[in-house]
Amino acid sequence: MTTVHTAPAISAAEQLRRRRVTNESIHSLKMEGLTVSDWHLANIDVFVTGDIELDELIARGRGASASE
Question: Exposure winner among 7, 11, 20, 37, fewest CB in 10 A?
Answer without folding.
Answer: 7
